[in-house]
Amino acid sequence: MARRNKKDASRITLGALAAAGMSAVMGLRALRKQHVSFSGRTVLVTGGSRGLGLVMARQFVAEGARVVLCAREEVELARARDELQRAGGEVMAIPCDVTDRVQVEAMVSRVHERFGAVDVLVNNAGLIQVGPLESMNEEDFDEAMNVHFWGPLYTTLAVLPEMKRRGWGRIVNVSSIGGRVSVPHLLPYSASKFALAGLSDGLRVELAQDGILVTTVCPGLMRTGSPPNAFFKGDHEAEYAWFVLGDSLPGTSMSAERAARKILEACRRGDAEALVGLSAKVAALARTLAPNMTAAMLAQFNRMLPQDGSTERFRGSDSETPLTRSWVTQLTRWAAQRNNELLH
């Protein structure tokens, strides 16, 4: 009798696995048919006043979407809105701190009043803190988690009821390759981006049954023009130098426009994940196939970086040197001018 029960249990298990496999195949076939147009859709982009967020907003506008920008800095936000409206876009700009759930809910209510429900949410708001672990304090980690984890969670929870009611929606969470491979001197950033990637992957699994597809985006270095607005600790000039050089060189970074196109295509298809850029793909593959070697290489890279533990914080714009103002970083400076990243 016990043997028969074991055989029956095995058959049930195999049957369940077979059914799950068939469901997965059918799901993949269904996904191939879910390419969408953004024309007439309401798209909310957090951190949309500059950098990658603004570049994505331009592309959504070009496809005929109604675009909502949110950011904390009102002057930058107004400039971004005016630019998109001059390009013929139907645009709404709302000052909002996504780390404040009350502000997020009020923002989504204003969007409903003007455009109706949000069809596509792009969680893009972010900040970068660079420096060795010794220079970071608990507040740095709190700040990164608030922006990169709690902010996306609050905005997602705010738009979910309407998406579930309609049985359709797209959510894009812009994590980072730093959310798959932890990079030296970016620990608060990487830790919080790992948290966002985990949240995003879990949302994908749980919300698919409601017709909501969640895409986790992990870009490598992009020439968005953001280094002047990043924060640096320790030997801030040396930290800024290595960071902005990596961000500027065509061999190590990709243009924000190309990255944005890849993100929009991943959203259009409803992909589970988008590794954007060759460096992101290589780093993720190396971490998966050779974790010990990858860790050893990153540890060696860490030894080459400045080790000053000073906790005073500076913006990138306050950390310039003759090297970072030279022709070597010209691509980043052009991107900063194009993408509303210059401080005024």
What Rg, in angstroms, do the CA atoms define?
22 Å
Tell me the series of helices and strands, N- to C-terminal.
Answer: HEHEHEHEEHEHEEEHEHEHHEH
Number of strands: 12
What is the CATH architecture annotation? 3-Layer(aba) Sandwich
CATH superfamily descriptor: NAD(P)-binding Rossmann-like Domain
Mean pLDDT: 90
Structural class: alpha/beta
Share in helix: 40-55%
**The number of domains:** 1
Total number of helices = 11
CATH topology: Rossmann fold
Shape: globular
Strand content: 5-15%
End-to-end separation in angstroms reads 80 Å
What profile does the largest beta sheet have? 7 strands, parallel
**Low-pLDDT windows of residues:** 29-33
CATH class: Alpha Beta
Strand order of the largest sheet: 3-2-1-4-6-7-11
Structure overview:
With 344 residues, the protein is α/β, with parallel strands linked by helices. It has one domain: 3-Layer(aba) Sandwich (Rossmann fold). The strands form 3 sheets. Strands 3-2-1-4-6-7-11 form a 7-stranded parallel beta sheet, sandwiched between helices. Helix 6 links the parallel strand 6 and strand 7. The N and C termini lie far apart (80 Å). GO terms for molecular function: oxidoreductase activity. Belongs to the short-chain dehydrogenases/reductases (SDR) family. Pfam families: adh_short. This is Ketoacyl reductase. Keywords: Oxidoreductase.
